[in-house]
Design brief:
CATH superfamily of the largest domain in chain B: Type I PLP-dependent aspartate aminotransferase-like (Major domain)
Oligomer: heterotetramer
Largest sheet of chain A: 3 strands, antiparallel
Largest sheet of chain B: 7 strands, mixed
Low-confidence stretches of chain A: none
Number of strands of chain A: 3
Helix content of chain A: 40-55%
Order of helices and strands of chain A: HEEEHHHH
Strand content of chain A: 15-25%
Strand content of chain B: 5-15%
Number of helices of chain A: 5
Order of helices and strands of chain B: EHHEHEHEHEHEEEHEEHEHHEH
Structural class of chain B: alpha/beta
Strand order of the largest sheet of chain B: 2-8-7-6-5-3-4
Radius of gyration of chain A: 14 Å
Number of domains of chain B: 2
CATH topology of chain A: Sufe protein. Chain: A
Structural class of chain A: alpha+beta
Largest interface: B-C, 79 and 79 residues
Mean pLDDT of chain A: 95
CATH class of the largest domain in chain B: Alpha Beta
CATH architecture of chain A: Alpha-Beta Complex
Shape of chain B: globular
Shape of chain A: globular
CATH topology of the largest domain in chain B: Aspartate Aminotransferase, domain 2
Number of domains of chain A: 1
Distance between the termini of chain A: 40 Å
Strand order of the largest sheet of chain A: 1-2-3
Bound molecules: pyridoxal-5'-phosphate
Number of helices of chain B: 11
Radius of gyration of chain B: 21 Å
Chain lengths: ~120, ~400, ~400, ~120
């Protein structure tokens, strides 16, 4: 298995990793995957005035999954509601050099983010 | 300490310096360059003398006669020759074999090959500790069983089967017993007579000898012949054609001689390291030992770590050369079928690490390994959504 | 001059010092001790890099792609895999093979094994010069022929077959061609593309590499797969399981690289020695060259001596390491079946001597050999009841 | 193939080997074996007054055959007619360490000697 330098960097020092500490704004949460699927990802964010105030993720998965969570979180920190809705996890494939058989992991992340976005839409 | 720390002795061992020196001498001496089958001239006979010396050294480690040792290209070939060769040679007597789900792929795939050609295979499932009770073997025997094939020390978990008790059962039922001893030779005592083993697979590179050479013990009276799998110039009593590789076989002989000499000391050395490693790792919550806690060989420790994913765990241990699952299946990264057979769920089978050590391993290396694992697990758990009791 | 004089290079060559040095380095370095299938860690990847380098070096000598090279334990195994593996894989297409009476035992016995299982084999007989005309191959093809297996340079006589012409015929009839190149690789130019060869057997120890390692070239597009003969961990694209022997394969790669570099010079060197030997031996009345006088490789000279008995002749040549009959059949002392196939009567087939030489051979050794033969023959003829014309 | 020291000595310096030179006495000749049988042996001797005056042999055969001819010839040089008749070539087996599968070669020698003896009896 080959991992790119980008993956190595994110894996060693993942951004916004762990549980989200308490703070202002409305909390939403979204999960994707499961142990059986080989990756399980949880995103949490707090928002206010159609903007992300803070976010964090937890992941059980391969180094590509972890690096992708880290890269996504970095991009989404402080983003607007519209930007979150428009976010495409498959765009992480190129910068992280994710091999073809692992693109499913990116869809699991997409799924978690999509659920956050849906919760936000539903007033969460 | 040389980095990365090599803790993958069950996959392959470094060649002992004495073995390497002997092989180098053999490769360098023009007088030993001849084909050892060229008995018509002095150079051929000199090469043959080295081969026969090695045959006696290999035989001695397992209490066999030199004439009962056939040199092969490794334990994979020995396993194939034992399983397929015996089945084919005895097919008129019966077409049923008994083996286990926890065997090495060389035995499993040989049995599958036979199964596709009409043989029936009983696949024994080990208990949760990885053990197979002799009674379970006895219960699996059928009137037309020709061979039982089980490994002595499991290459993934290090668990030891009671081959002596199984040998007695096979003898009583007049069934042949093949034992894959690639991991146990030179580490546990093997006596083919006392343990009533009929065929025994050996590999040099698991015991500080060179890769690419192994041997098969074939009991002269009980087995006599197996069907050869390769055909040619009649070498190795017609059971294994091809020019015998003098330097390889000589290296294996010397490695086996050294192993016989050092067995008790080394067994103690690796057991001490293994206990130190296990004591260190037990600091971690959610760590599980794979395989029976007592009935195990000293050179392998296999653990699963709850709450972390296997590939990431393995990736975090870049400072260590360890195996995740079987060394021989590490080309793929499915969850280890051996640990699955012990009843481990996929996630735990995947988050397993096999540490294996030997002659040159040190306490400092073990301590370093413990440090690496503790740190990697802490990092992964710091953002894992899976909660671990006590973690 | 080192005695006895080694003139049995066709049976096995001394390992080139550069190859031995590389192998020794590989055996001694702990960083290269890992199993090259252990791609999960740095040590495994370092070993694998050596294996892949060697694969490219072997491929380069015969103009193949690295991915088309499978490492085996030697040409015997390569021949078995090519012949039996192809036959089994293609058995639904046809069960007829074409080979020759003058093939190496590895091919002959593989074909016999198939014949016993229902395949039909056409055994081509060479002409009195040991040659097989491409037209004879074409005439032997049948609608269900799946494979033609012929050797490039004969290991007993040194005669060269026109494999390019045979390759063109096979391609035209859509039949696969397997060539045993154990004797020709590095001595004659081989280009699997230009010569349209589909499978090619190679051995390291015939070309200053180590014993116990060889390779099989398998054309990626035309052949793709053969049925494996051994089963296990999936190494070598699933065609040849077992831990790849890093030092052996690396040694083969280096030997093949050197051979490619030195081919023209060495071919000239051995040809000069061969001509000197033949000129010297021709002093003797009743000496006969076995095999075509022109279409032959430089490293082998095979002669029969009329009026003297083979075993006594061979025994008289104690100062020389030569072969009487095939190197690989020298465990027995029947008259060479290869020379019998050329039409030599038993007595002359038995009184044959194969001289073979190479890189380290010298003119002084050749002159010594001529002296030995002249003296031995004079002694035996001094009391032989057989009269030899001109003797 | 192993050859004893005795065989080596006889092979290197065989006694009474070659064609029998002309001389006094009556010449008799006996052959055994053939090329096809793997050994061909010819004994010639000249006798007078029921005693061997001179003898010689020619052989095409393996080192054991040649050594056995040499040893036999040494024993028979100067022997009486009765001694020749009584000679048993199988007695050469032990001193030369002839392997079992080669005892046929000794019988070929016996055959040649027997023919010499018969020719002598027949007035040759
Ligand atoms: C138990 C067991 N059997 C067989 C083998 C195969 O040995 P080799 O690499 O010599 O073919 C191995 C190692 O891979 C092993 O651990
Ligand atoms: C033409 C030919 N093919 C095959 C072989 C077998 O090679 P190996 O000794 O590598 O099995 C030999 C040598 O013995 C040979 O000369």
């Amino acid at each position: 298995m080959d991992y790119s330098g980008e993956v190595a960097l994110h894996f060693a020092a993942p951004r916004h990793a762990g549980a989200l500490p308490p703070g202002p704004g409305t909390l939403v949460r979204g999960e994707g995957g499961s142990l059986e699927q080989g990756a399980w990802v949880v995103f949490e964010l707090r928002h206010e005035a159609a903007r992300v105030l803070a976010l964090a993720w937890q992941a059980w998965g391969c180094p590509h999954t972890i690096a992708a969570c880290s890269l996504a979180a970095g991009k989404l920190a402080g983003c607007t509601r519209a930007e979150l809705q428009a976010f495409d996890a498959l765009s992480l494939r190129a910068p992280l050099d994710v091999p073809a058989h692992k693109t499913g992991r990116l869809l699991i992340i997409q799924d978690a983010l999509h659920k956050c976005s849906a919760a936000w839409d539903n007033g969460g | 300490m040389q980095l990365p720390v090599y803790l993958d002795y069950a996959a392959s061992t470094p060649v002992d310096p004495a073995v390497a020196a002997l092989m180098n001498d053999c490769l360098g001496r023009r007088a030993l360059a001849a084909n050892p089958a060229a008995l018509g001239h002095a150079a051929g006979r000199a090469a043959q003398a080295l081969v026969e010396k090695a045959r006696a050294q290999v035989a001695a480690l397992v209490n066999a006669q030199p004439a009962e040792i056939i040199f092969t290209s490794g334990a994979t070939e020995s396993d194939n020759l034992a399983v397929i060769g015996t089945a084919q040679f005895r097919e008129t007597r019966g077409r049923h074999l008994v083996t286990a789900l926890t065997e090495h792929k060389a035995v499993i795939e040989s049995c599958r090959h036979l199964a596709a050609r009409g043989w029936r295979i009983t696949w024994l499932r080990p208990d949760a500790d990885g053990l197979i009770a002799p009674a379970a073997v006895e219960a699996a025997l059928e009137p037309d069983t020709v061979l039982v094939s089980l490994m002595h020390v499991n290459n993934e978990t290090g668990v030891i089967l009671d081959v002596g008790a199984i040998g007695a059962i096979c003898r009583r039922h007049d069934v042949l017993l093949h034992v894959d001893a690639a991991q146990s030779a030179g580490r546990e005592v093997i006596d083919v007579r006392a343990q009533q083993i009929d065929l025994l697979s050996l590999s040099a590179h698991k015991l500080y000898g060179p890769k690419g050479v192994g041997a098969l013990f074939i009991d002269q009276e009980r087995v006599r012949r197996v069907a050869p799998l390769l055909f040619g110039g009649g070498q190795e009593r017609g059971l294994r054609p091809g020019t015998v590789a003098t330097h390889q076989v000589a290296g294996m002989g010397e490695a086996f001689r050294l192993a016989a000499e050092r067995l008790p000391d080394e067994a103690q050395h690796v057991r001490a390291l293994r206990d130190r490693l296990w004591a260190g790792l037990q600091q971690l919550p959610g760590i599980l030992l794979n395989g029976h806690v007592g009935q195990r060989s000293g050179h392998i420790l296999n653990v699963s770590v709850a709450g972390v994913e296997g590939e990431s765990l393995f990736y975090s241990l870049g400072g260590l050369c360890v195996a995740s699952g079987s060394a021989c299946t590490s080309l793929s990264n499915e969850a280890s079928p051996v640990l699955r057979a012990l009843g481990r769920p996929v996630a735990l089978a995947q988050s397993s690490i096999r540490f294996s050590f030997g002659r040159a391993s040190t306490a400092a290396e073990i301590d370093f390994a413990v440090g690496c694992v503790v740190q990697a697990v802490a990092h992964l758990r710091s953002f894992s959504p899976v909660s671990v009791a006590g973690g």
